[in-house]
Amino acid sequence: MAGRSQDKLNSAMREVQSAGIKGSLSIVQLDVTDEQSIKEAARRVHEEHGRLDVLVNNAAAGNIDPDAKTRFTISLTTNVIGPAMLAEAFRPLLLGGDNPYSVYVSSGTGSLSMAADPAGVTYFPNEDAYRASKAALNMVAIKEWKDFGSKGLKVFAFCPGFVISNIRGTSEDARTGGGKAGDPMVSGQSLLDIIEGRRDADDGKFVHKDGVYPW
Ligand SMILES: NC(=O)c1ccc[n+]([C@@H]2O[C@H](COP(=O)([O-])OP(=O)(O)OC[C@H]3O[C@@H](n4cnc5c(N)ncnc54)[C@H](OP(=O)(O)O)[C@@H]3O)[C@@H](O)[C@H]2O)c1
């Protein structure tokens, strides 16, 4: 489990352990915008485990700053360049395994087809940068699937659905999307379905809990 804040990692680890979940868990500090920390994390995983079965690129920023340069820079740096660097650094470890998975946590808001639909929805102000970043992330996923699918790597872009989290801000209203956001445990279950092979028929696609989104 990776994260940029050691304190948050420690408390998340305590939470998982106190839930009595079986298995072992290690934490590694990693900032997806910091190439050195990515390389160091990959080195550690290589040294301590020798291979990687699943990489979930989950980190993202939901920046809606009124200044276009600010929100585009933050969104593209964290949501596109970071996952692309991460995927590149960890890919040799993935390709060393028997049945590797690479999952990019994207968003239905990044679907170009759905955005271009005249009936398509605007979800929040200044959403252009976040949505553009998820569209670009989808291309990163497509390219990885095209380039490494033949080497056995299964690649998914995955939308976790509209669920409670900090991505819209930390106030109660923002976290719950005005009370409309769903339970992130459901997103976790859908992710587990991917990495345990129950979505293998959708390899190379943009999946969500109930099916597949158009790119
Ligand atoms: N929640 C939704 O409704 C929804 C809908 C569609 C897609 N998604 C996607 O789901 C994924 C998870 O987001 P979430 O909803 O759980 O939001 P979240 O609570 O804001 O989680 C995002 C995580 O990314 C981490 N992060 C941000 N910048 C980072 C960096 N530079 N290096 C390392 N970690 C970094 C954050 O770490 P810190 O805790 O240190 O800030 C945080 O733990 C994202 O890809 C998001 O776009 C969410």
TrEMBL record:
InterPro entries: Fungal_SecMetab_SDRs (IPR051468), NAD(P)-bd_dom_sf (IPR036291), SDR_fam (IPR002347)
Family the entry assigns: Belongs to the short-chain dehydrogenases/reductases (SDR) family.
PANTHER family for the chain: CHAIN DEHYDROGENASE, PUTATIVE (AFU_ORTHOLOGUE AFUA_5G01530)-RELATED (PTHR43544:SF32), SHORT-CHAIN DEHYDROGENASE/REDUCTASE (PTHR43544)
Identification of the protein by name: Uncharacterized protein
Organism, scientific name: Lithohypha guttulata
UniProt lineage: Eukaryota, Fungi, Dikarya, Ascomycota, Pezizomycotina
